[in-house]
Amino acid sequence: MARTTVAEREANRMRLLEAAANEFARKGLDAANINEISLAAGLAKGTVYNHFASKEALFLAVVEQACLYAAAGAEQVPEQAPTHTRLRAVLQADVEWVRQNEAFAKVLVREVLTGEESRYPRVLAAAAPLIERIAMILRDGARRGEVRSGVPVEQLALTFTGLADLAFLQHWGSGGLWPSLEDLPDTVVEMFMHGAAPR
Amino acid sequence: MARTTVAEREANRMRLLEAAANEFARKGLDAANINEISLAAGLAKGTVYNHFASKEALFLAVVEQACLYAAAGAEQVPEQAPTHTRLRAVLQADVEWVRQNEAFAKVLVREVLTGEESRYPRVLAAAAPLIERIAMILRDGARRGEVRSGVPVEQLALTFTGLADLAFLQHWGSGGLWPSLEDLPDTVVEMFMHGAAPR
Amino acid sequence: MARTTVAEREANRMRLLEAAANEFARKGLDAANINEISLAAGLAKGTVYNHFASKEALFLAVVEQACLYAAAGAEQVPEQAPTHTRLRAVLQADVEWVRQNEAFAKVLVREVLTGEESRYPRVLAAAAPLIERIAMILRDGARRGEVRSGVPVEQLALTFTGLADLAFLQHWGSGGLWPSLEDLPDTVVEMFMHGAAPR
Amino acid sequence: MARTTVAEREANRMRLLEAAANEFARKGLDAANINEISLAAGLAKGTVYNHFASKEALFLAVVEQACLYAAAGAEQVPEQAPTHTRLRAVLQADVEWVRQNEAFAKVLVREVLTGEESRYPRVLAAAAPLIERIAMILRDGARRGEVRSGVPVEQLALTFTGLADLAFLQHWGSGGLWPSLEDLPDTVVEMFMHGAAPR
DNA sequence: CATGAATGAGGCTTCATTCAT
DNA sequence: TATGAATGAAGCCTCATTCAT
What is the pTM of this model? Predict the structure, then answer.
């Protein structure tokens, strides 16, 4: 009966999410155009509303999908590894999914940094697992004396993810010149761990 | 009738800029409403167009005014002072003007971090003096061995201003909880200079 | 697959008519929603179009069904009974079916009083038997001197049905306060036969 | 300065109300088209929204204007005149304004008879003075024994205005054939006062 | 210059209808 | 025959911009 249709429907939903991510990444929520999104997905305008209640709901779905992608790339590094190694692994996984889903990544980073206050709670909830993973690593690091313990790890985690977001922003803003995606993990971890002072 | 003197006209322009900064800070460029801006300035809608060619021109004027404010607060610290002292002084001046012109600051930070690509050149030009001042300090620091020299100072300067912007964002996003404006310079400079590793 | 028998199909049609009557009674033709009608009938949207060519066709089917219901309750009073008795019997039958099919009744009354001009002929044709029955009674009454003969019975019949419709509207509009369905036949017949002047 | 503009603005508002009355009279609230209304008024779509907050607000403004028109034609008949004379005078004034403002009248009658429940309170408030005038006349009539006193005058007043509305509806529905506007007051008053029984 | 009424392009959203399964 | 996903025309409303006073 509707077995194939269910699969098609899901495929359509994903096509809409992809198209929406592209549009939102380029223009932002307000300037994005629902009609263009639907056409880019090869569907009609009305179909968007069969899948998402509103433009904002579509946007949030994109953000949540981005969080899913981001969380999917869990690092495969032993807990015993030094903090900087584990952090680098996290960023390497991030870089990987950014390569695969650049549009989603751009939307997520922009939303995390400068999203509307009213959407903050939803975004926060979606992004919480990512932050928590960093906090965990830093907590382990602090226990082992690799991370200074004068500052709450939550604040350090926010700073670390902020630095990473910043780095992605600069990567995109510079047209990929600096930092390159390849260098990004090293650059960010080095800066985060030791700062600008000479070693 | 020439009922309005030159001084009044200039005052009107400033009132519009202030009102626009508030509106843009709260809603962003797209969602901001020209009519509400003019009313908040105590003027009529049409007057906006006697001062600014378009909504986007008004937005850019706000950004440029914000850069002027930011640049106005030059640090009064001798060049011989240690790098961290000079950086801290820069941030203290920044904090000062943020206290006075929070709306302008919010607009500027958001625009610098996640503004439209098409506006990037204009914003970059307006913000260049600020970046250059940091680069200069870091260049001096590198010469004196207080700053590592493996990384181009331009990149370090970008990172420093990025960290500061991040800190302001977190200040606003947390409702002023962390970091407080008072702590912000220390926090940012400490992080920038030495990172998360224990000293 | 011929999974649905003829009886089932007819039952579905009736369920749709009932659901449609409810929706049309509450919202009118324009504001009614085909999807909600089908869901209220426990069927899918598309099924509506297996039974009715369009929303308007469904609406007309509801009106016609209402006329059928209304006509079904023929009064069981001898022709020799006085006019007021026969008229009261008609209204009592009306009240009876209104009790059973309030939604259909509301749709019919609204359509008769203020329906679209373009649907007027169809509605008129459907309602003609009802009017004719009244006219017949009044004709008999005039012949017997119980009804004044200066006015064409067709006009009197229209007035009588109009008064009845008005009474139903006031019943619904007042939340059932006045006139009650029980009092309605007496009230209407009394007003119709003798007016507001004292007897 | 804006002296002329104020007058023009008011004229535009009236043009919109007239155009809206025509459109609403022909199609009803839902099917009416804001764009066509504005064009019929010789104005642009957006102008409607400078005067009325929404389509429904415009509709209610039309209804209220209709009530104003209706109330404006106060009968000039001495209080001592017999009830049927006074009632006839009221209807003659009604007929007069219906001749002048047919569209407004159609909207008002339809709304009073079969308007949306949610708009009922507003319409009731606007129409209250009209009803009250009838009730007053009937109260006087009852005091003088010209109107039967077994029924509350409020109910009689509702019936009278209902009969009048019905008569207008039939006038329009029959293409002006019956009753003619000229005959309408006599016909309605006669029916209301004495009913269908022979005198 | 300041004003604010008018403009009309643009966009989100609804929903009747179609059609492949 | 029943289903419900897709369609796209239609329409309300917003709001940046213009312009006569």
Answer: 0.93
